[in-house]
Structures are given as structure tokens and as C-alpha cells.
């Protein structure tokens, strides 16, 4: 972020790390992001994560390939995705120098000239299948070959991506997979920009959704669909994404066809507008550890 005569220039990095159970580790990484080294907040947080998380012993249900699994840069205010791609590429290069032995694959605007999406890159690398790096023969874009300790980290830039998880009250993974398939944007009756997977979670099934923003250049969103999407502007361009409430309602409807209720919904992080407002507020007020004010996960 930097200040200009027209206000903030703001991009978000919603860092994905392969740790959620050890609160002390998560907080150490968050503090590194706030108090990091000479303004290199993302690098400081990643460095702390690499020091604290050993992928050789990491356990979890959600797919992941790296101790730092994802470093996405999203434009929010007065900055474009192309510039975010340059920032992401710079982060990748500094990170592999700062943490010898770590490896990076690039996606989106950082992946030049192909600009392959995160989903494409993850499929190529076997992100959805596990992390047997010896058999995968993964070649990183920057850095060393993936190690058991660090794994491989995705670094890139794209329009904003939300994470919305809906838990359904069943242990039947097959039903969960059917519902996840039905809600995906790749399904003709699914929700545009939504990618979904089903996982067992605390005796129930969680439908984990990545919700991509898209520029509606062809005006494919009809008037009656307006309530399904939320829109925001960056540098005069309007982007849209499916609202968390619409995802929850769609999964609830699909689950009811199987006689199943939904148990809970969590928006992991923020909507694009909420992210922009929270970041701007915290920066203006000088509030570093903002998560202490905004506890938990909210719709």
C-alpha cells in the first residue's frame, strides 16, 4: 500500500499457510506480517511460516503442497491486476533468495506469458492428489526442487478470490461430492466462478468453495440474477462474484434434495469490499493486530 493524491493504492495478500490447529504458530505468522522486516510484510510472514511449519510431518484433510501453500495478490483500490502480477513475481524471487531451498510455481498475472490460472497450475502439479514430490517430478518456476520440509508454494495475482465453506449435516462423502459438483461454475446449472470440493470435517461434510471474481464484459448477469452476485470496482472496471449468502442458499437447496440440513457457513476472510474497507480502516487508524478486534469467521 502507498499513499497518493487520489488516496490509497491497495492490494491484498490473503496468505494460505498449511496450519490451522496450532494457534500460537498462526499468530506468530500474523505478527510477522504486521511487524515484518523493513516493510517486506509478505516476505516476513512467509519466512516465519517456513520456519514454523514442517510439511514432512504436517497432517490435514484439505489439499496443500507447501508450508506456505499460496501467496495470492489481489487488486482492491487504485491498482490493476497487471501491477499485482509484477509485485507477485518480485515476492517469489525475493522469497527464494531469503529462504534457500524453497520452491515456487507462478499463476495468473505472475505467470508470464501463459497467465495460467491457479486451478490449471494446481492440476498440473497434482495439488488435488497429494504431495509425493518424488513421483510428481515437479519442476518449479523459481527456486529449488520441492523439499519434504517446504513443499512448493504458489505465488501469483488475479482478481479477488473469496473462500466460503458450507458444512452439511451428513458423513456421506459421496453426497458431498455430488453437491460440490452441482454448485461448481463448470456445471451448466452451477454458480459462475465457484470451484468446490467436499471434505470430511468433524463428523460432517464441508463443501469448501473458492469464489473467483470476474469481469462481466459480455453482460451475462441478467437482472433477475443481480441478487446472486456482489459487484465492486477497481480502476473503473466492474468485477462480480457470487455472494456467500447465495452459495449457502444453493447448497442448502441441494442438500435438502437429499433430506440433509446445513450445519454452518463460514466466510474465511472477507468479501472484496469488506477486505478493502477493513484494510483502509486499519491502515488509517494504525491498527496492526486487526484480527484481535475482528475475531472469528463471519458471513
3D structure, described in words:
- This protein has 299 residues and is of the alpha+beta class.
- The chain is built from eight helices and 14 strands.
- The chain has helices at residues 23-35, 41-52, 81-98, 118-125, 133-136, 173-183, 244-256, 272-285, and strands at residues 2-4, 7-13, 16-17, 68-77, 103-108, 142-143, 153-157, 161-168, 194-201, 204-212, 214-215, 229-234, 237-242, 262-267.
- The strands form three sheets. Strands 1, 2, 3, 4, 5, 6 and 7 form a seven-stranded mixed β-sheet that branches. The chain has a four-stranded antiparallel β-sheet with strand order 9-10-8-14. Strands 11-13-12 form a three-stranded antiparallel β-sheet.
- A hairpin with a 2-residue loop joins β1 and β2 (7-13).
- α2 (41-52) packs across α3 and α6 (173-183) crosses α7.
- The two termini are 26 Å apart.
- The relative contact order is 0.13.
- Residues 1-6 have low confidence and may be disordered.
Query: Please, what is the average pLDDT?
Result: 87
List the quaternary state of the chains.
single chain
User: Portion of residues in helices?
Assistant: 25-40%
In total, the number of strands is 14
Structural class: alpha+beta
In whole angstroms, the N-to-C terminal distance is 26 Å
Main β-sheet, in a few words? Answer: 7 strands, mixed
Radius of gyration, in angstroms, nearest whole number: 19 Å
Topology order in helix (H) and strand (E) letters = EEEHHEHEHHEEEHEEEEEHEH
Number of helices: 8
Instruction: Report the principal-axis shape.
Output: globular
Uncertain runs: 1-6
Beta content: 25-35%
GO molecular function, one term: transferase activity
InterPro entries: Formiminotransferase_C_sf (IPR037070), Formiminotransferase_N (IPR012886), Formiminotransferase_N_sf (IPR037064), FormiminoTrfase_cat_dom_sf (IPR022384), FTCD (IPR051623)
Pfam families: FTCD_N
Domain Formiminotransferase N-terminal subdomain: 9-159
Amino acid at each position: 500500500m502507498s499513499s497518493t493524491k487520489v488516496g490509497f493504492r491497495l492490494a491484498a495478500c490473503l496468505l494460505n499457510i498449511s496450519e490451522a490447529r496450532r494457534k500460537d504458530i498462526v499468530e506468530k505468522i500474523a505478527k510477522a506480517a504486521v511487524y515484518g522486516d523493513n516493510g517486506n510484510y509478505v516476505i516476513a510472514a512467509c519466512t516465519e511460516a517456513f520456519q514454523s511449519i514442517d510439511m514432512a510431518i504436517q497432517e490435514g484433510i484439505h489439499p496443500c503442497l507447501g508450508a506456505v501453500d499460496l501467496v495470492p495478490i489481489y487488486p482492491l483500490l487504485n491498482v490493476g491486476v497487471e501491477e499485482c502480477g509484477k509485485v507477485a513475481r518480485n515476492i517469489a524471487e525475493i522469497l527464494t533468495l531469503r529462504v534457500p531451498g524453497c520452491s515456487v510455481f507462478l499463476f495468473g498475472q505472475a505467470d508470464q506469458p501463459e497467465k495460467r490460472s491457479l486451478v490449471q497450475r494446481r492440476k498440473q502439479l497434482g495439488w488435488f492428489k497429494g504431495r509425493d514430490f518424488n513421483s510428481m517430478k515437479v519442476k518449479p518456476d523459481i527456486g529449488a526442487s520441492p523439499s519434504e520440509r517446504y513443499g512448493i508454494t504458489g505465488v501469483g495475482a488475479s482478481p479477488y478470490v473469496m473462500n466460503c465453506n458450507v458444512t452439511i449435516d451428513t458423513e456421506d462423502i459421496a453426497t458431498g461430492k455430488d453437491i460440490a459438483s452441482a454448485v461448481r461454475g463448470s456445471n451448466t446449472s452451477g454458480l459462475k466462478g465457484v470451484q468446490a470440493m467436499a471434505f470430511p470435517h468433524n463428523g460432517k461434510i464441508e463443501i469448501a468453495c473458492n469464489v473467483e471474481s470476474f469481469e462481466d464484459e459480455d453482460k451475462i448477469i441478467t437482472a433477475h440474477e443481480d441478487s446472486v452476485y456482489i459487484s465492486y470496482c477497481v480502476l473503473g472496471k466492474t468485477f462480480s462474484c457470487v455472494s456467500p449468502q447465495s452459495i449457502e442458499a444453493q447448497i442448502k437447496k441441494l442438500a435438502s434434495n437429499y433430506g440433509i440440513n446445513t450445519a454452518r457457513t463460514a466466510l474465511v476472510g472477507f468479501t472484496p469490499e469488506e477486505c478493502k474497507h477493513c484494510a483502509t480502516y486499519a491502515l488509517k487508524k494504525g491498527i496492526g493486530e486487526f484480527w484481535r478486534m475482528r475475531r472469528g469467521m463471519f458471513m
